[in-house]
Amino acid sequence: MGKKATSAAYVLGVGMTKFVKPRNKIDYTELGYEAGIKALLDAQINYDDVEQGIACYCYGDSTCGQRVFYQFGMTKIPILNVNNNCSTGSTGLHLGRNLVSHGAADCVLVVGFEKMFPGSLQSFFQDRTNPTGTTVDMMKATRGITNAPGAAQMFGNAGREYMEKYGAKREDFAEIARVNHSHSQRNPYSQFRDEYTLQQILDSPLIHEPLTKLQCCPTSDGGAAVVVVSEEFLAARPHLRSRAVLIAGQCLATDAPSLFDRSSINLMGYEMSAFAAQTALAEAGLSAKDIKVCELHDCFSANEMITIDALGLCDPGTAHEMVRARDITYGGRCVINPSGGLISKGHPLGASGLAQCAELVWQLRGWANNRLVEGAHAALQHNLGLGGAVVCTVYKRADGGPTEAVASRLVAEMTGLGYNPAVEAKGFTREQADRVRSRTRRSEWALADTEKKVEARF
User: Fold this and answer.
1) What 8-state DSSP symbol labels residue 452?
2) What are the distances in angstroms from CA 242 to CA 55, 130, 238, 401?
3) Which helix (H) or strand (E) covers residue 221, if one does?
4) What is the CA radius of gyration of the chain?
5) Distance CA 272, CA 385 (A)
6) pTM of the predicted protein model
7) For the segment 56-109, what is each residue's pLDDT rounded down to a tens digit?
8) With contact defined as beta carbons under 8 Å apart, do 293 and 396 qualify?
9) Which residue in 244, 254, 295, 417 has the fewest CB atoms around it within 10 Å?
10) Span 248-288, pLDDT tens digits
């Protein structure tokens, strides 16, 4: 699976926007700018320190990345544009980590953003072969096809197969959604922050058995960004080490022939998820039993069910038992999606993987003090895209210690923002943005009116 990393890579800065309903009120330039400035402020570096840029988005013309990055500065660095379906953000993170770990750069800024359309996902190119067409054809051949949204059918069918094989019930899938909605109340960036009873989730409109509306993630507008740096970069700035989080293991994987073995579970990339998790955990020197906090790709509750199994967080075929034992939330075996997950937080495709990273970084730093998973030494991330690609990442604190809550007052002092970004979704001043934009190679023409629009939302 490629050459091994030659040096350590760390997440030094993270930032994100609130995730909101797509209403054509916010442009991608604003989403990328806000997220990127926040990540640079969090890392306490200037854009002049960035040696390569990676832009992550699915819906947009070519070079949207340059349009976003030029707002930070025009420093002639390489800027790469990444599109890998729903795993786009974490694919960009994987690329950034590889650049750093193999000596191609000491500091990489990864920015994900998505301006989406209301309603379910759709294909835009009707004059050419759909890349997931063979997957849809297999679904049609094995389970038939209905008028429900395509993704809901495919993941719902995986849930049906899990019920048939292992005895899971409709209530188990609804409980997953109940937990995620409950978690989202404490995440200020979540698109939805309402709590629901199990019965309310079961009684919401049926989309595709066993999935009801409240078990399906929404489309969203949003942005998130991550600064990845080398050991050498960090060693030259020892005052920043306490906030750095090690990328201890990572794997980007694609599908195996089992994708088309007529199993609805395997059709959703089960084998590549299992492989990526095993590979990333092995690189980090851990097993799934060591993981106490995890952000996984719950586009639908059914995918969380099969992914709990694929990641090894339970014995094979017993994910529903883990759900029933309340082992996916606080006080249980592993807190899954403390952010609220895609179901509640939202799913702007290019930003989702980077938002997962931000949540886990805040967890390991101890900044997410209103939803902290205490005592965690490591965290696991899973981000899936049909078509297909999956990225699993294992994070560790740089000091190797367990998580401990840090008071928001102290975080506010450390960041210089005047607030704790893990528990308050606030903005930044023009002076703060000016501090991290390029000192010598900036263009106000490139920035245009973005800064004013972002400030107005704050």
Assistant:
1) H
2) 27, 46, 8, 11
3) none
4) 21
5) 11
6) 0.97
7) 999 999 999 999 999 999 999 999 999 999 999 999 999 999 999 999 999 999
8) no
9) 254
10) 999 999 999 999 999 999 999 999 999 999 999 999 999 99
